[in-house]
Amino acid sequence: MDEIDELVEAGALDREQITGALENPGPRVVARSPDAGDLIATHFGSVRAGFNGEQRDSGDPDNQEVWVPEVLNMGVRPSVAVQRARENFEAAGGVVMEEVNVENIDVYGMGNIVNVAVPGEEKPRRVTCRLVVDAMGNASPIARQIRGGEKPFGVCAVVGTCASGFDLDNGFADLIYTNQDMWTGDVAGGDALGSPRKQYFWEAFPAGSGEAHRTTYLFTYMDADEERPSLIDMLEDYWDLLPEYQREAHSAFRDGLSVEEAVAEGRFKINRCLYGCFPTFKDSPLRPPAKGILAIGDASGIQSPLSFGGFGALTRHINRLTSGIIEALEAGALSEKDLGSLNPYLPNLSATWMFQRSMMTPIGSRRPSDFVNRLLRTNFGIMDDLGREILRPFNQDVVRPIGLLQVLAQAMVRDPLNTPGLLYHLGPLTVLDWMGHFGAMFAYLALYKGLAGPLRSYADSLWASEKAEDKKTAFKIRRLVEAWEYGSGEDYTGF
Fold first, then answer.
1. Is the pLDDT at 351 greater than 60, yes or no?
2. Are residues 75 and 205 in contact, defined by beta-carbon separation less than 8 angstroms?
3. Residue 278, φ and ψ in degrees, nearest 5
4. Would strands 40-44 and 201-206 be described as parallel, antiparallel, or unpaired?
């Protein structure tokens, strides 16, 4: 619900437009709204995280699982959200152009011209503007042009389905779950690599299209090496591994049937297949390439390397970006440097790179097969013991330095033998790089706690001035304070 509240605060949606399954239904219960016009289709009370190395019944008292409170526990109808946001945008004077292509953007000192190809028109339509906002995702041609063919530093690859027939237990979701250690299925016998090559994770949610409908994902973290498996290879693994993962939710899988056999008997129906590849770049967020051009969301690389990216990763920043863009236009702060302050260095975002590296397996690595599960099992257990003020932010991609320090300190006590192995397998350069970002988080926290109040008051007084330079100075001060705030996780309010 936090992300929806952020859309309301940003003005994309009105409070009365938030309709559907609003009330939390309680543990292991799913509330559904059958009305296709409601925004919230499903609301489930239980979301699981578990790292067992084997499949366990979610009701087993001996399983090693954490139930995460109010994180990714709603299913939103995107068509309804987009339509309502569009209506609000057009009511405010906005114009939406459909079924057109942007051919190119001409950048001038006084503004930009977007050349738009319109079906049926010989010449492109010229749209003049002061600011172009690139929200075209990680496939943005603008971002690709800036990066110049740069190889991604990391990749999150995802495959899955939305299917029906889950007749046993469809009353909870999986945020992240493993039922085996590192997978070696794509390593041929006698292969020189001779070691596990990837750790598979699962994610699952009750779908809003029916009570027995469920969406399941298989995903993994890896680098962009050419030897990595393709999405087709992953999908083949998905078909093989799904029955074991969902045997407690689907009677056909409980009875030992494969996906092919369950489909043939009419007990498992695939409604649609899902797949995606989410590249992440260490040189992020992306700096503006020219005056009057700003990338946001995945196009800028602002998403965590641990997340699937997309609009959900943007919602944390949407209020900051909305106010910042408005102020940039009002103050005339549209230079590359000015707009770059809207995509600042955030040490807590950069620190997550080490987490991503610890959850993937470099080709040829000799990491123990339980390396990832052991690490995550320990850390999630600690976060659960520390309470929701530690557990919730981390699982919403907000890393806070005090909470992270508590988890690390307890991890060294709870599993002291794992720490040397972790440092060895990650390597000294990765650890040193991470320590710099970790220290910067505390510096940002201290600066925000000590200076945010006075600086914001000073910026407010400058903003009230009629002088253009004063407004630009106020704009820069506000962006600096926001960088400290978001870079230390102090923007998080979902406790």
1. yes
2. yes
3. -110, 95
4. unpaired
